[in-house]
Amino acid sequence: MRIIVHHATCQGHARCWAQAPDIFKLDDEGYILPGDINVAEGDELLASRGAQACPERALEIDRTAAALESVFIQSRV
Amino acid sequence: MASNPVPDHVPPEMVRDFSLFTSAGMLPTPNGDPHAAVACVHAGPPIFYSPYNTHNGRGTWVITRTRDQRRVLQDAETFSSHRSIFASVLGENWPMIPLELDPPAHGIFRSLLNPLFSPKRVMVLEPVVRERAIALIDRIAASGTSCDVMKDFAFPFTVNIFLGFLGLSDDRLDIFVGWANDLLHGDDVKRPAAARMIVAFIDELAAMRRKEPVADFMTFVVQAEVEGRPLTDEEVRGTGVLLFVAGLDTVAAAIGFDLAYLARNPKDQDLLRSEPDRIGFAAEELLRAYPTVQMIRVATKNIDFEGAPIRKGDYVSCATMIANRDPAEFKCPNTIDLAREDNRHAAFGYGPHRCLGSHLARREIVIGLEEWLARIPGFRIKEGMAPITYGGHVFGIENLILDWS
Ligand code: HEM
Ligand code: SF4
Which residues have CB under 6 Å of ligand 1? Predict the structure, then answer.
Protein backbone atom coordinates (compact mmCIF):
# COMPACT_ATOMS: atom_id res chain seq x y z
CA MET A 1 0.00 0.00 0.00
CA ARG A 2 1.08 3.52 -0.72
CA ILE A 3 -0.19 6.85 0.60
CA ILE A 4 -0.29 9.63 -1.97
CA VAL A 5 0.49 12.90 -0.19
CA HIS A 6 -1.18 15.97 -1.67
CA HIS A 7 1.25 18.27 0.01
CA ALA A 8 -0.34 21.56 -1.09
CA THR A 9 -3.62 20.51 0.55
CA CYS A 10 -2.03 19.76 3.94
CA GLN A 11 -2.84 22.43 6.53
CA GLY A 12 -1.01 20.95 9.46
CA HIS A 13 -3.87 19.45 11.47
CA ALA A 14 -1.46 16.64 12.42
CA ARG A 15 -4.28 14.14 12.80
CA CYS A 16 -2.35 11.63 10.66
CA TRP A 17 0.65 12.04 12.93
CA ALA A 18 -1.54 11.65 16.03
CA GLN A 19 -2.56 8.19 14.72
CA ALA A 20 0.86 7.04 13.52
CA PRO A 21 3.84 9.32 14.19
CA ASP A 22 6.31 6.84 12.67
CA ILE A 23 4.49 6.71 9.35
CA PHE A 24 3.42 10.33 8.95
CA LYS A 25 6.38 12.62 9.55
CA LEU A 26 5.92 16.34 10.07
CA ASP A 27 8.24 19.28 9.41
CA ASP A 28 9.14 21.89 12.03
CA GLU A 29 5.98 23.87 11.33
CA GLY A 30 3.86 20.76 11.86
CA TYR A 31 2.95 20.04 8.24
CA ILE A 32 3.48 16.71 6.52
CA LEU A 33 6.76 16.12 4.68
CA PRO A 34 6.35 16.09 0.90
CA GLY A 35 6.59 12.81 -1.01
CA ASP A 36 4.37 9.75 -1.16
CA ILE A 37 4.65 7.19 1.62
CA ASN A 38 5.30 3.51 1.01
CA VAL A 39 3.67 1.56 3.79
CA ALA A 40 5.23 -1.64 5.09
CA GLU A 41 2.88 -4.62 5.20
CA GLY A 42 2.33 -4.74 8.95
CA ASP A 43 1.54 -1.03 9.10
CA GLU A 44 -1.35 -0.98 6.67
CA LEU A 45 -4.18 -0.68 9.16
CA LEU A 46 -2.49 2.09 11.09
CA ALA A 47 -1.55 3.93 7.91
CA SER A 48 -5.05 3.85 6.50
CA ARG A 49 -6.46 5.07 9.81
CA GLY A 50 -4.02 7.97 9.69
CA ALA A 51 -4.90 8.78 6.09
CA GLN A 52 -8.61 8.69 6.90
CA ALA A 53 -8.09 11.06 9.80
CA CYS A 54 -7.00 13.94 7.56
CA PRO A 55 -9.63 16.69 7.73
CA GLU A 56 -8.41 18.27 4.49
CA ARG A 57 -8.41 15.03 2.49
CA ALA A 58 -4.72 15.52 1.74
CA LEU A 59 -3.88 11.82 2.06
CA GLU A 60 -5.04 9.36 -0.57
CA ILE A 61 -4.73 5.62 -0.14
CA ASP A 62 -3.37 3.81 -3.19
CA ARG A 63 -3.90 0.04 -3.16
CA THR A 64 -3.14 -0.63 -6.82
CA ALA A 65 -0.67 -3.26 -7.93
CA ALA A 66 1.91 -0.58 -8.67
CA ALA A 67 1.69 0.61 -5.09
CA LEU A 68 2.16 -2.93 -3.79
CA GLU A 69 5.13 -3.38 -6.05
CA SER A 70 6.83 -0.22 -4.89
CA VAL A 71 6.50 -1.38 -1.30
CA PHE A 72 7.89 -4.77 -2.29
CA ILE A 73 10.90 -3.19 -3.98
CA GLN A 74 11.44 -0.89 -1.06
CA SER A 75 11.38 -3.73 1.42
CA ARG A 76 14.13 -5.53 -0.48
CA VAL A 77 16.62 -2.69 -0.63
CA MET B 1 -32.66 44.55 16.38
CA ALA B 2 -32.57 46.17 12.98
CA SER B 3 -31.17 44.05 10.22
CA ASN B 4 -29.93 45.28 6.91
CA PRO B 5 -32.28 44.84 3.96
CA VAL B 6 -31.80 41.64 1.96
CA PRO B 7 -29.83 42.53 -1.19
CA ASP B 8 -31.77 42.44 -4.47
CA HIS B 9 -29.69 39.65 -5.98
CA VAL B 10 -30.77 37.18 -3.27
CA PRO B 11 -33.80 35.22 -4.49
CA PRO B 12 -36.57 35.55 -1.85
CA GLU B 13 -37.06 31.78 -1.71
CA MET B 14 -33.44 31.40 -0.55
CA VAL B 15 -33.97 33.61 2.50
CA ARG B 16 -34.56 31.78 5.77
CA ASP B 17 -35.54 32.91 9.19
CA PHE B 18 -32.40 31.58 10.84
CA SER B 19 -29.65 33.32 12.76
CA LEU B 20 -26.80 32.24 15.02
CA PHE B 21 -27.53 35.41 16.97
CA THR B 22 -31.30 35.67 17.25
CA SER B 23 -32.90 32.27 16.53
CA ALA B 24 -34.44 30.25 19.36
CA GLY B 25 -31.75 28.99 21.74
CA MET B 26 -29.12 31.52 20.62
CA LEU B 27 -29.77 34.14 23.27
CA PRO B 28 -28.65 33.23 26.79
CA THR B 29 -30.81 30.22 27.72
CA PRO B 30 -30.90 28.25 31.00
CA ASN B 31 -30.18 24.58 30.28
CA GLY B 32 -29.95 25.43 26.59
CA ASP B 33 -28.45 23.32 23.84
CA PRO B 34 -27.56 25.80 21.07
CA HIS B 35 -25.72 23.13 19.07
CA ALA B 36 -28.81 20.94 18.82
CA ALA B 37 -30.83 24.03 17.94
CA VAL B 38 -28.74 24.80 14.86
CA ALA B 39 -28.57 21.17 13.70
CA CYS B 40 -32.10 21.53 12.33
CA VAL B 41 -30.80 23.40 9.25
CA HIS B 42 -29.80 20.02 7.80
CA ALA B 43 -33.43 19.36 7.02
CA GLY B 44 -33.11 22.24 4.55
CA PRO B 45 -30.99 23.19 1.53
CA PRO B 46 -27.16 23.18 1.37
CA ILE B 47 -27.06 26.97 1.20
CA PHE B 48 -29.48 29.74 2.17
CA TYR B 49 -29.43 33.42 3.11
CA SER B 50 -29.73 34.60 6.70
CA PRO B 51 -30.66 38.30 6.94
CA TYR B 52 -29.16 38.83 10.42
CA ASN B 53 -26.10 36.72 11.09
CA THR B 54 -23.25 38.88 12.44
CA HIS B 55 -22.71 40.98 15.56
CA ASN B 56 -23.85 44.11 13.79
CA GLY B 57 -26.79 42.57 11.99
CA ARG B 58 -25.34 41.88 8.55
CA GLY B 59 -26.81 39.18 6.38
CA THR B 60 -24.73 36.18 5.31
CA TRP B 61 -25.05 33.18 3.10
CA VAL B 62 -25.02 30.06 5.28
CA ILE B 63 -23.18 26.96 4.05
CA THR B 64 -24.56 23.90 5.81
CA ARG B 65 -22.74 20.86 4.37
CA THR B 66 -19.28 19.91 5.62
CA ARG B 67 -18.09 19.17 2.10
CA ASP B 68 -19.10 22.62 0.87
CA GLN B 69 -17.56 24.38 3.88
CA ARG B 70 -14.30 22.59 3.13
CA ARG B 71 -14.54 23.86 -0.45
CA VAL B 72 -15.14 27.47 0.65
CA LEU B 73 -12.48 27.49 3.34
CA GLN B 74 -9.84 25.88 1.12
CA ASP B 75 -10.43 28.49 -1.60
CA ALA B 76 -9.09 31.69 -0.06
CA GLU B 77 -8.82 33.34 -3.45
CA THR B 78 -12.59 33.38 -3.91
CA PHE B 79 -13.49 33.61 -0.22
CA SER B 80 -11.40 36.21 1.55
CA SER B 81 -10.79 36.60 5.30
CA HIS B 82 -10.11 40.32 5.12
CA ARG B 83 -12.68 41.89 7.46
CA SER B 84 -11.13 43.83 10.41
CA ILE B 85 -13.65 42.37 12.87
CA PHE B 86 -11.82 43.51 15.97
CA ALA B 87 -10.61 46.88 14.67
CA SER B 88 -14.08 47.77 13.42
CA VAL B 89 -15.33 47.70 17.02
CA LEU B 90 -13.01 50.70 17.46
CA GLY B 91 -13.99 52.26 14.17
CA GLU B 92 -10.53 51.37 12.83
CA ASN B 93 -9.27 49.20 10.03
CA TRP B 94 -6.32 46.86 10.63
CA PRO B 95 -6.18 43.07 10.37
CA MET B 96 -5.77 40.58 13.16
CA ILE B 97 -2.81 38.45 12.09
CA PRO B 98 -2.87 35.91 10.57
CA LEU B 99 -6.68 35.53 10.89
CA GLU B 100 -7.70 38.38 8.62
CA LEU B 101 -4.93 38.17 6.02
CA ASP B 102 -5.26 36.32 2.73
CA PRO B 103 -2.57 34.35 0.93
CA PRO B 104 0.20 35.07 0.07
CA ALA B 105 0.68 37.52 2.99
CA HIS B 106 -1.11 35.06 5.27
CA GLY B 107 1.43 32.30 4.60
CA ILE B 108 4.37 34.53 5.50
CA PHE B 109 3.03 35.23 8.99
CA ARG B 110 1.69 31.73 9.41
CA SER B 111 5.13 30.22 8.70
CA LEU B 112 6.62 32.60 11.21
CA LEU B 113 4.19 31.51 13.95
CA ASN B 114 3.70 27.81 13.12
CA PRO B 115 6.85 26.56 14.90
CA LEU B 116 5.68 28.21 18.16
CA PHE B 117 2.46 26.18 18.15
CA SER B 118 3.55 22.98 16.38
CA PRO B 119 2.68 19.57 17.82
CA LYS B 120 6.28 19.10 18.93
CA ARG B 121 6.41 22.47 20.66
CA VAL B 122 3.16 21.71 22.47
CA MET B 123 4.67 18.48 23.79
CA VAL B 124 7.33 20.60 25.47
CA LEU B 125 4.70 22.86 27.04
CA GLU B 126 2.63 19.97 28.35
CA PRO B 127 4.17 19.69 31.86
CA VAL B 128 3.45 23.35 32.62
CA VAL B 129 -0.13 23.04 31.37
CA ARG B 130 -0.67 19.96 33.52
CA GLU B 131 0.84 21.59 36.57
CA ARG B 132 -1.57 24.54 36.24
CA ALA B 133 -4.57 22.25 35.86
CA ILE B 134 -3.59 20.22 38.90
CA ALA B 135 -2.99 23.30 41.07
CA LEU B 136 -6.41 24.76 40.23
CA ILE B 137 -8.32 21.51 40.65
CA ASP B 138 -6.56 20.61 43.90
CA ARG B 139 -7.62 23.95 45.29
CA ILE B 140 -11.22 23.35 44.23
CA ALA B 141 -11.24 19.83 45.70
CA ALA B 142 -9.80 21.09 48.98
CA SER B 143 -12.36 23.86 49.38
CA GLY B 144 -15.61 21.91 49.17
CA THR B 145 -17.89 19.71 47.09
CA SER B 146 -19.20 22.25 44.62
CA CYS B 147 -17.83 24.94 42.30
CA ASP B 148 -18.53 27.01 39.22
CA VAL B 149 -16.38 25.30 36.61
CA MET B 150 -16.23 28.39 34.40
CA LYS B 151 -15.18 30.85 37.07
CA ASP B 152 -13.07 28.53 39.21
CA PHE B 153 -11.39 26.36 36.61
CA ALA B 154 -11.97 26.86 32.87
CA PHE B 155 -11.19 30.59 32.65
CA PRO B 156 -8.35 30.78 35.17
CA PHE B 157 -6.78 27.76 33.45
CA THR B 158 -6.85 29.16 29.90
CA VAL B 159 -6.01 32.72 30.92
CA ASN B 160 -3.10 31.43 32.94
CA ILE B 161 -1.64 29.59 29.96
CA PHE B 162 -2.11 32.70 27.84
CA LEU B 163 -0.31 34.79 30.48
CA GLY B 164 2.46 32.21 30.53
CA PHE B 165 2.92 32.75 26.79
CA LEU B 166 3.27 36.45 27.44
CA GLY B 167 5.68 35.91 30.30
CA LEU B 168 3.30 37.56 32.78
CA SER B 169 2.34 36.50 36.27
CA ASP B 170 -1.15 35.69 37.45
CA ASP B 171 -1.95 38.85 39.37
CA ARG B 172 -3.86 40.44 36.49
CA LEU B 173 -5.89 37.33 35.79
CA ASP B 174 -9.26 38.75 36.83
CA ILE B 175 -8.79 41.85 34.70
CA PHE B 176 -8.17 39.68 31.64
CA VAL B 177 -11.20 37.53 32.27
CA GLY B 178 -13.24 40.74 32.56
CA TRP B 179 -11.95 42.11 29.25
CA ALA B 180 -12.58 38.86 27.45
CA ASN B 181 -16.09 38.76 28.88
CA ASP B 182 -16.92 42.37 27.96
CA LEU B 183 -15.54 41.93 24.47
CA LEU B 184 -17.82 38.99 23.81
CA HIS B 185 -20.94 39.85 25.73
CA GLY B 186 -20.64 43.53 26.49
CA ASP B 187 -22.98 46.16 25.12
CA ASP B 188 -22.05 48.97 22.74
CA VAL B 189 -20.20 50.77 25.51
CA LYS B 190 -18.38 47.86 27.15
CA ARG B 191 -17.21 46.21 23.94
CA PRO B 192 -15.21 49.11 22.52
CA ALA B 193 -13.93 49.94 26.00
CA ALA B 194 -12.60 46.40 26.43
CA ALA B 195 -11.15 46.42 22.91
CA ARG B 196 -9.32 49.66 23.66
CA MET B 197 -7.86 48.22 26.88
CA ILE B 198 -6.66 45.11 25.10
CA VAL B 199 -4.99 47.14 22.35
CA ALA B 200 -3.33 49.45 24.89
CA PHE B 201 -2.14 46.46 26.87
CA ILE B 202 -0.63 44.74 23.82
CA ASP B 203 1.02 47.97 22.61
CA GLU B 204 2.52 48.58 26.02
CA LEU B 205 3.77 45.03 26.37
CA ALA B 206 5.36 45.18 22.91
CA ALA B 207 7.15 48.39 23.84
CA MET B 208 8.41 46.80 27.05
CA ARG B 209 9.73 43.74 25.28
CA ARG B 210 11.45 45.87 22.66
CA LYS B 211 13.34 47.63 25.42
CA GLU B 212 14.02 44.54 27.49
CA PRO B 213 13.69 41.24 25.67
CA VAL B 214 12.71 38.12 27.63
CA ALA B 215 11.91 34.58 26.51
CA ASP B 216 8.24 35.01 25.61
CA PHE B 217 5.81 35.36 22.72
CA MET B 218 5.78 39.15 22.44
CA THR B 219 9.57 39.30 22.45
CA PHE B 220 9.56 36.78 19.62
CA VAL B 221 7.09 38.91 17.68
CA VAL B 222 8.92 42.23 18.11
CA GLN B 223 12.24 40.61 17.16
CA ALA B 224 10.86 38.63 14.21
CA GLU B 225 11.49 39.48 10.60
CA VAL B 226 9.29 38.93 7.57
CA GLU B 227 10.72 39.38 4.10
CA GLY B 228 13.92 40.80 5.57
CA ARG B 229 12.26 43.52 7.70
CA PRO B 230 10.93 43.71 11.25
CA LEU B 231 7.17 43.75 11.81
CA THR B 232 5.42 47.12 11.83
CA ASP B 233 3.71 48.31 15.02
CA GLU B 234 0.35 47.52 13.45
CA GLU B 235 1.47 43.98 12.62
CA VAL B 236 2.78 43.42 16.14
CA ARG B 237 -0.52 44.64 17.53
CA GLY B 238 -2.61 42.55 15.13
CA THR B 239 -0.70 39.43 16.14
CA GLY B 240 -0.86 40.08 19.88
CA VAL B 241 -4.54 40.96 19.89
CA LEU B 242 -5.44 37.79 18.00
CA LEU B 243 -3.66 35.59 20.52
CA PHE B 244 -5.80 37.23 23.18
CA VAL B 245 -9.15 36.82 21.45
CA ALA B 246 -8.51 33.40 19.89
CA GLY B 247 -7.33 31.32 22.78
CA LEU B 248 -9.26 32.30 25.91
CA ASP B 249 -12.98 31.73 25.48
CA THR B 250 -12.68 29.00 22.93
CA VAL B 251 -10.83 26.58 25.19
CA ALA B 252 -12.77 27.64 28.28
CA ALA B 253 -16.08 27.06 26.48
CA ALA B 254 -14.92 23.66 25.23
CA ILE B 255 -14.04 22.58 28.77
CA GLY B 256 -17.38 23.92 30.01
CA PHE B 257 -19.48 22.11 27.39
CA ASP B 258 -17.48 18.90 27.92
CA LEU B 259 -17.91 18.84 31.69
CA ALA B 260 -21.59 19.79 31.35
CA TYR B 261 -22.06 16.80 29.06
CA LEU B 262 -20.24 14.48 31.48
CA ALA B 263 -22.21 15.84 34.44
CA ARG B 264 -25.43 14.89 32.65
CA ASN B 265 -24.17 11.53 31.39
CA PRO B 266 -22.80 9.65 34.40
CA LYS B 267 -22.14 6.46 32.42
CA ASP B 268 -19.77 8.25 30.07
CA GLN B 269 -18.26 10.05 33.04
CA ASP B 270 -17.54 6.76 34.84
CA LEU B 271 -16.15 5.22 31.66
CA LEU B 272 -13.64 8.02 31.12
CA ARG B 273 -12.69 8.07 34.79
CA SER B 274 -11.98 4.34 34.87
CA GLU B 275 -10.38 4.24 31.42
CA PRO B 276 -8.58 7.57 30.98
CA ASP B 277 -6.93 6.32 27.78
CA ARG B 278 -10.23 7.04 26.11
CA ILE B 279 -10.18 10.75 26.92
CA GLY B 280 -8.18 11.77 23.84
CA PHE B 281 -10.71 10.15 21.53
CA ALA B 282 -13.65 11.38 23.57
CA ALA B 283 -12.36 14.96 23.46
CA GLU B 284 -12.46 14.82 19.65
CA GLU B 285 -16.09 13.72 19.71
CA LEU B 286 -16.94 16.49 22.17
CA LEU B 287 -15.15 18.99 19.91
CA ARG B 288 -17.34 17.70 17.11
CA ALA B 289 -20.55 17.92 19.09
CA TYR B 290 -19.82 21.25 20.82
CA PRO B 291 -17.65 23.41 18.59
CA THR B 292 -17.75 27.14 19.18
CA VAL B 293 -16.66 29.17 16.16
CA GLN B 294 -18.46 30.60 13.16
CA MET B 295 -16.13 31.52 10.28
CA ILE B 296 -17.08 34.33 7.93
CA ARG B 297 -15.63 34.90 4.49
CA VAL B 298 -16.15 37.70 1.97
CA ALA B 299 -16.70 36.78 -1.69
CA THR B 300 -14.03 38.39 -3.89
CA LYS B 301 -15.99 37.78 -7.08
CA ASN B 302 -19.40 36.69 -8.32
CA ILE B 303 -19.83 32.94 -8.09
CA ASP B 304 -22.77 30.58 -8.33
CA PHE B 305 -22.52 28.13 -5.47
CA GLU B 306 -24.91 25.17 -5.28
CA GLY B 307 -27.54 27.29 -7.01
CA ALA B 308 -26.97 30.42 -4.93
CA PRO B 309 -25.96 33.64 -6.71
CA ILE B 310 -23.15 34.79 -4.43
CA ARG B 311 -22.04 38.28 -5.45
CA LYS B 312 -18.76 40.06 -4.83
CA GLY B 313 -18.75 41.49 -1.30
CA ASP B 314 -21.34 39.06 0.10
CA TYR B 315 -20.57 37.48 3.46
CA VAL B 316 -20.44 33.68 3.54
CA SER B 317 -20.79 31.91 6.87
CA CYS B 318 -19.20 28.55 7.61
CA ALA B 319 -20.36 27.67 11.10
CA THR B 320 -18.46 24.76 12.60
CA MET B 321 -21.48 23.84 14.73
CA ILE B 322 -23.49 23.36 11.55
CA ALA B 323 -20.81 21.41 9.63
CA ASN B 324 -20.30 19.10 12.58
CA ARG B 325 -23.95 17.98 12.54
CA ASP B 326 -24.04 17.13 8.83
CA PRO B 327 -25.52 13.63 8.41
CA ALA B 328 -23.70 13.25 5.07
CA GLU B 329 -20.39 13.49 6.93
CA PHE B 330 -21.16 12.00 10.34
CA LYS B 331 -23.30 8.96 11.04
CA CYS B 332 -26.08 9.92 13.51
CA PRO B 333 -24.61 13.39 14.00
CA ASN B 334 -26.84 14.25 16.94
CA THR B 335 -25.76 11.21 18.93
CA ILE B 336 -22.64 11.64 21.01
CA ASP B 337 -20.48 8.55 20.64
CA LEU B 338 -17.25 8.96 22.58
CA ALA B 339 -15.62 6.21 20.52
CA ARG B 340 -16.64 7.64 17.11
CA GLU B 341 -14.25 6.75 14.28
CA ASP B 342 -13.38 8.79 11.18
CA ASN B 343 -14.09 11.99 13.01
CA ARG B 344 -12.82 14.67 10.65
CA HIS B 345 -14.74 17.43 12.37
CA ALA B 346 -14.59 21.12 11.54
CA ALA B 347 -14.04 22.52 15.06
CA PHE B 348 -10.67 24.03 14.13
CA GLY B 349 -11.71 25.02 10.62
CA TYR B 350 -10.36 23.86 7.27
CA GLY B 351 -7.96 25.44 4.79
CA PRO B 352 -5.00 27.75 5.35
CA HIS B 353 -6.49 29.40 8.46
CA ARG B 354 -6.80 26.08 10.31
CA CYS B 355 -6.56 27.04 13.98
CA LEU B 356 -2.96 27.85 14.78
CA GLY B 357 -3.61 26.95 18.41
CA SER B 358 -5.34 23.64 17.67
CA HIS B 359 -2.54 21.45 19.03
CA LEU B 360 -2.30 23.50 22.20
CA ALA B 361 -6.09 23.66 22.57
CA ARG B 362 -6.37 19.88 22.22
CA ARG B 363 -3.76 19.34 24.93
CA GLU B 364 -5.40 21.86 27.25
CA ILE B 365 -8.77 20.16 26.86
CA VAL B 366 -7.46 16.62 27.28
CA ILE B 367 -5.27 17.54 30.25
CA GLY B 368 -8.12 19.51 31.82
CA LEU B 369 -10.47 16.51 31.54
CA GLU B 370 -7.85 14.00 32.70
CA GLU B 371 -6.96 15.92 35.83
CA TRP B 372 -10.57 16.83 36.58
CA LEU B 373 -11.77 13.24 36.36
CA ALA B 374 -8.81 11.99 38.37
CA ARG B 375 -9.41 14.45 41.22
CA ILE B 376 -13.15 15.12 41.38
CA PRO B 377 -15.47 12.18 42.23
CA GLY B 378 -18.80 11.56 40.46
CA PHE B 379 -20.22 15.02 39.73
CA ARG B 380 -23.55 16.34 38.51
CA ILE B 381 -25.15 19.70 37.89
CA LYS B 382 -26.01 21.17 41.27
CA GLU B 383 -29.68 20.82 42.01
CA GLY B 384 -31.68 23.92 41.18
CA MET B 385 -28.83 25.34 39.07
CA ALA B 386 -29.13 25.70 35.31
CA PRO B 387 -26.06 26.32 33.15
CA ILE B 388 -26.75 29.24 30.82
CA THR B 389 -25.67 28.65 27.23
CA TYR B 390 -25.62 31.06 24.33
CA GLY B 391 -24.99 31.18 20.58
CA GLY B 392 -23.54 34.03 18.56
CA HIS B 393 -20.14 34.48 16.96
CA VAL B 394 -18.52 32.21 19.53
CA PHE B 395 -20.84 29.78 21.33
CA GLY B 396 -20.38 29.46 25.05
CA ILE B 397 -21.58 28.60 28.50
CA GLU B 398 -21.78 31.23 31.21
CA ASN B 399 -21.81 29.19 34.38
CA LEU B 400 -21.55 25.54 35.26
CA ILE B 401 -22.20 24.83 38.91
CA LEU B 402 -21.26 21.24 39.70
CA ASP B 403 -21.82 19.28 42.86
CA TRP B 404 -20.09 16.11 44.08
CA SER B 405 -21.32 15.90 47.67
C1 HEM C 1 -11.12 24.68 21.47
C2 HEM C 1 -10.48 25.78 21.26
C3 HEM C 1 -10.37 26.48 19.93
C4 HEM C 1 -11.22 26.45 18.87
C5 HEM C 1 -12.56 25.72 18.74
C6 HEM C 1 -10.63 27.28 17.84
C7 HEM C 1 -11.17 27.46 16.59
C8 HEM C 1 -10.55 28.16 15.57
C9 HEM C 1 -11.05 28.24 14.23
C10 HEM C 1 -12.33 27.59 13.71
C11 HEM C 1 -10.18 29.00 13.51
C12 HEM C 1 -10.29 29.36 12.03
C13 HEM C 1 -10.81 30.74 11.85
C14 HEM C 1 -11.01 31.08 10.39
O15 HEM C 1 -10.73 30.25 9.51
O16 HEM C 1 -11.48 32.19 10.10
C17 HEM C 1 -9.14 29.40 14.40
C18 HEM C 1 -8.06 30.19 14.05
C19 HEM C 1 -7.07 30.57 14.93
N20 HEM C 1 -6.91 30.16 16.24
FE21 HEM C 1 -8.12 28.92 17.25
N22 HEM C 1 -9.45 27.80 18.31
C23 HEM C 1 -9.25 27.33 19.58
C24 HEM C 1 -8.17 27.61 20.40
C25 HEM C 1 -7.11 28.41 20.07
C26 HEM C 1 -5.97 28.69 20.93
C27 HEM C 1 -5.73 28.10 22.31
C28 HEM C 1 -5.18 29.58 20.24
C29 HEM C 1 -3.90 30.24 20.64
C30 HEM C 1 -3.03 29.85 21.41
C31 HEM C 1 -5.80 29.82 18.97
C32 HEM C 1 -5.28 30.64 18.02
C33 HEM C 1 -5.79 30.77 16.75
C34 HEM C 1 -5.18 31.61 15.73
C35 HEM C 1 -3.92 32.46 15.88
C36 HEM C 1 -5.98 31.48 14.58
C37 HEM C 1 -5.79 32.17 13.22
C38 HEM C 1 -5.08 31.24 12.27
C39 HEM C 1 -4.97 31.78 10.88
O40 HEM C 1 -5.73 32.67 10.50
O41 HEM C 1 -4.08 31.32 10.14
N42 HEM C 1 -6.96 29.09 18.90
N43 HEM C 1 -9.38 28.86 15.66
S1 SF4 D 1 -3.83 15.23 8.83
FE2 SF4 D 1 -3.79 16.04 6.78
S3 SF4 D 1 -3.64 18.20 7.00
FE4 SF4 D 1 -3.06 17.26 8.88
S5 SF4 D 1 -0.83 17.06 8.84
FE6 SF4 D 1 -1.70 15.16 8.18
S7 SF4 D 1 -1.81 15.45 5.99
FE8 SF4 D 1 -1.56 17.45 6.82
Answer: B 81, 98-99, 110, 242-243, 246-247, 250-251, 254, 291-293, 295, 320, 347-349, 353, 355-357, 360-361
Ligand 1 center from residue B11 Cα (angstroms) = 34
Cβ neighbours for B23, distance < 8 A, ≥ 6 positions apart: B17, B37, B38, B391
pLDDT tens profile B348-357: 999 999 999 9
* A17: closest chain B residue by CA: B119
Neighbours of B58 (CB within 10 A): 16
Note the ipTM here: 0.91
DSSP string, A36-77: -EEPPGGGHHHHHHHHHT-TT--EEEE-SHHHHHHHHHHHH-
Question: Which atom of ligand 1 lies nearest, measured to the CA of B361?
Answer: 27
Q: Which residues of B touch A31 (CB under 8 A)?
A: 114
- The SS3 of residue B391 is coil
Task: List domains and CATH numbers for chain A.
Answer: 1-73 (3.30.70.20)
pLDDT digits 0-9 by tens, A33-68? 999 999 999 999 999 999 999 999 999 999 886 666
CA distance B321 to B305: 21
